[in-house]
Amino acid sequence: MTSTAPTTAAPREWRLAARPTGWPTREDFELATSLLPELAEGQIRVRNEVLSVDPYMRGRMSAAKSYAAPYVVGEAMTGAAVGVVEQSRAERFKPGDHVLHGLGWREVAIIDAAEARVVDVEAAPASAYLGVLGMTGLTAYAGLTRIARLHEGDVVFISGAAGAVGGAAGQIAKVLGASLVIGSAGSPEKVRHLIDDLGFDAAFSYRNRPVAEALREVAPEGIDVYFDNVGGDHLEAAIGSLRLGGRIAVCGMISVYNNTEPAPGPRNLARLIQTRGRIEGFLVGDHYDLAGEYAARAAGWLADGSLSLRETSVDGFENTLEAFLGLLRGDNTGKMVVRL
Ligand code: NDP
Q1: Is ligand 1 within 6 A of the CB of residue 78?
Q2: CA-CA distance, 255 to 232, in Å (whole number)?
Q3: Which residue of 46, 103, 185, 227 has the fewest CB atoms within a 10 Å radius of its CB?
Q4: How far apart are CA 38 and CA 45, in angstroms?
Q5: How far is 178 from 149, CA to CA, in rounded Å?
Q6: What is the pTM of this model?
Q7: Residue pair 15/86 in contact by the 8 Å Cβ criterion
Q8: Mean pLDDT score across all residues of the chain
Q9: Atom 34, ligand 1: which residue's CA is nearest?
Q10: Nearest CA owner, ligand 1 atom 9
Q11: Cβ(327) to ligand 1 under 6 A?
Q12: Distance CA 280, CA 143 (A)
């Protein structure tokens, strides 16, 4: 990686320098000076204030065909961000507006007006629009209500529970009437956070014992819903604990994102027959019709304390890559963001 000294006034951007094999390394990225075009009619110039780093970005660093186009080697990467409009040639925006848009991984972005949306930073902090009031919150809501078809009284298990989606999913499951909400996470501190701060009924760390054993202990009667953020042995354990008519919403499989060989599948899929269980993957992008409904309910839940705004922030644009790698390692509790 080449680093540009952060003293220059010229705005900078993170580019993909090479496609990572396995875990990404610093050499796969370049911190470079942006070459910004003149502002055209209908565009705004935005100085980013807070950037999102998300697990799906790892997929876009690979060439493999996926739901989102791969990042282009040699070009700046993209991702959600909130920034302030510095200059506007678009009717709907004025300097000083805060906007949510998709040109993160850079300090300054030139954006077509249609690609940006004003957000109210008086109503909630800018970073909330990247997390619980944004894509990750909606992912949790759509996964639970539409894919897992959560019913009142369900026993719900959530992996990656101390992360952005998982933490929101646990709190939303509770408020929607789950009888028991169980979470797994990667450290004793995160387990305590799930119980003490987020109101999970039970939680365990997946690092010190087999997931199947830990899950059976906290849910001896089994589970009705599994919200999967992790895949691997978590998925196999959930299938093993599924009750009659159980539903599994496959949101993510972060345990395999850096694999160089395909991971073996769950060995107990046949259990879906006897339980009449259902397993369904989903993408939040197919459920934006729920965004208005979710925003209204989430605002109420935030106001009455059923939903909290936990996040981990890393300061400094030059640390964006470290924040992303930290996210993959599990350094974050709640949404991982970068403050510029
Ligand atoms: P998180 O905030 O949950 O951050 C990722 C977390 O994953 C880490 O904090 C770490 O926590 C955990 N993790 C990393 N490696 C492993 C592993 N090998 N086994 C178990 N846990 C691991 O990220 P998000 O909330 O943004 O995303 C969560 C999941 O949801 C991801 O799989 C993501 O791809 C998916 N997603 C899917 C969407 C969709 O539309 N389907 C939309 C958004 C996200 P820990 O310390 O507990 O290990």
Answers
A1: no
A2: 6
A3: 103
A4: 9
A5: 11
A6: 0.96
A7: no
A8: 95
A9: 252
A10: 330
A11: yes
A12: 10
